[in-house]
Amino acid sequence: GAGVSQTPSNKVTEKGKYVELRCDPISGHTALYWYRQSLGQGPEFLIYFQGTGAADDSGLPNDRFFAVRPEGSVSTLKIQRTERGDSAVYLCASSLVGPDTEAFFGQGTRLTVV
Amino acid sequence: AQKITQTQPGMFVQEKEAVTLDCTYDTSDQSYGLFWYKQPSSGEMIFLIYQGSYDEQNATEGRYSLNFQKARKSANLVISASQLGDSAMYFCAMREGQRGNQFYFGTGTSLTVIP
Fold first, then answer.
1. Which of A9, A35, B79, B99 is placed for a possible disulfide with A43 were both Cys, Cβ 3.0 to 4.6 Å?
2. Which residues in chain B have Cβ-Cβ distances shorter than 8 Å to A103?
């Protein structure tokens, strides 16, 4: 497809488990972003990739969160030892480089930790 | 300090009327971009309009226009001739710098269009 694709769309996991969320950006977009959105809130920045490298990971809340983008395309957000407070919608976006280029968002992955 | 401030948690507008959604921003960069996104109840984030810090004219896209007041650091979204389908959350966002960085989002404004 032409848009940003995120899988799975929904994920229910037990507290303490490990999860992986996948993002397939728009082809040619070198910038990739992960955001977390809780109900009624705006998107909260987690990490930004420029190509394969994390240009800014200052939004990752703690060391349980990690993200990779090994080939500069698909990215995986990894959460270890999940906690109930991790429950949220995780949004991925991609864009071209440049301050005037908008980000295109995927539909998000709704993570529920029970 | 918050990078993006949206002070209106909820707004109501009569169908076919115009509505202004407020956004103020905070940055020391000379080069930055301002964006508005719409998020319907389905959850997708839809890009609406962009304003660059060096743009002298206010951006317009169909029924959307951006009232950009650089000295006041405000970038209000104006929706003209509101439609029922405009009911959604609206987020203001900013990206700083020449090379592009993360997007900072506000807390959003929930707009309800009344028939």
1. A35
2. 35, 47, 103
